[in-house]
Amino acid sequence: MAVLVGCTTLPVAAPWLVRRIASGDPLYLYFPIMLVAVTLRVIWDTGVAGLQFAAALVLICSILLSGFAGRLLARKRNVLLLLAILGCAILIIGWYASFPGLRQKNAVGGAVFYLLLLSGIVFLRDRFWLSAYLLSSAAVVVAIFDMRSIVIVCAIIVFAMYHPLGKSPRILFLAVVVMILGTIIVVSVMQTGVFDKYLQAYNSHFQRGLESGRDVIWPMVLDQASAAPYFGLGFDAGKFSFRDEEMSAHNQYLEILVQQGGVGVLLVALLLTIIANKASVSIRDDFCRQRFSGVFCGIVYANNFEVQLFQNLFYIGLVQWLLIALTLYGEMPRTLGTRASSGGNSGA
């Protein structure tokens, strides 16, 4: 299905892509290079997972080219879209309540949270109310679905919206990259369960501790990746046996490392770096820049614990890329922003 959708969106996005490439936009100059690299890898190591990754890239490019962000956020109120997004979140919760065995609880919680965040970005244009809404949504998702990593995502978003560092997407992105590397090192060398005593009430409620398995799986991933550090072991690699289950790396970047090696991680890192740099140059309104920094860096860090941006939970990744597109290209309306921007929507 992902391959079919990716192939059908390519002709629609092609005219926009040609214009962006002709204008010298570095983001869209880079997309074809990355897609060619992935396609060559798929030809070399044919597999459904590789085709899905390539289709995901096409979809991501289409989302960032779609041109809807500026028009959507230019409206002061978009109640129908808000209701549609909230309706999707309610349907997902209802589906999980009716058929709890069909989806993992944290995956459902992640989908609900990012849909709620999407509705907040569309509907709320005030720093305080957006922060309050975001924290309330996170509290509900954590309480119902035990999605603890959402707390870190919220902390990054709120920090970016209030701290001057959020005005520089490049610097905050670099800080998050350091956080990602630090988290991988810390979790890989220590038993995270030592922190359980500080969360006794929380753990007893959900009947689980901090030992989610990443402290076991991540060292296994790093050990497997060391067998082919440059080009990886192929798209079908990255499955690990843990607690009588076959699990992924539970880390988008480590998943790419074991599948596509250091070259693959570098390609993704360059893509994210170009997006952060584009935001630093093109977003003029201070709050819009801070909002982008928080959402973008929060999503980038969240994928340190899940595989969403390109692969396993890509239905969540699609919402994440929609959020990135909205905040990258959606300047504040003139009456609501602190500084009007005549060119803020031109990139959409």
Describe the structure.
With 348 residues, the protein is mainly α. It folds into 2 domains: 1-66, no CATH class; 67-329, no CATH class. Helices cover 69% and strands 2% of the residues. The protein has 14 helices and 2 strands; from the N terminus they run H-H-H-H-H-H-H-H-H-H-H-E-E-H-H-H. A two-stranded antiparallel sheet has the order 1-2. The longest helix has 31 residues, at 252-282. It is globular, with a radius of gyration of 20 Å. The two termini are 27 Å apart. The model is unreliable at 1-6 and 333-348 (pLDDT under 50).
* Uncertain residue ranges: 1-6, 333-348
Summarize the amount of helix as a percent range. Answer: 55-70%
Domain count? 2
Q: Main sheet?
A: 2 strands, antiparallel
* Broad shape: globular
Radius of gyration: 20 Å
Mean pLDDT: 78
Order of helices and strands: HHHHHHHHHHHEEHHH
Give the structural class. Answer: mainly alpha
Specify the number of helices: 14
Helix-strand layout with pairing:
Blueprint: H1 2-22, H2 26-44, H3 48-65, H4 69-73, H5 79-98, H6 105-123, H7 127-145, H8 149-162, H9 169-189, H10 200-206, H11 214-225, E1 240-242, E2 245-247, H12 252-282, H13 286-302, H14 314-329
Antiparallel strand pairs: 1-2
Helix pairs in contact: 1-3, 2-3, 2-12, 3-14, 5-6, 6-7, 6-14, 7-8, 8-13, 9-11, 9-13, 11-12, 12-13, 13-14
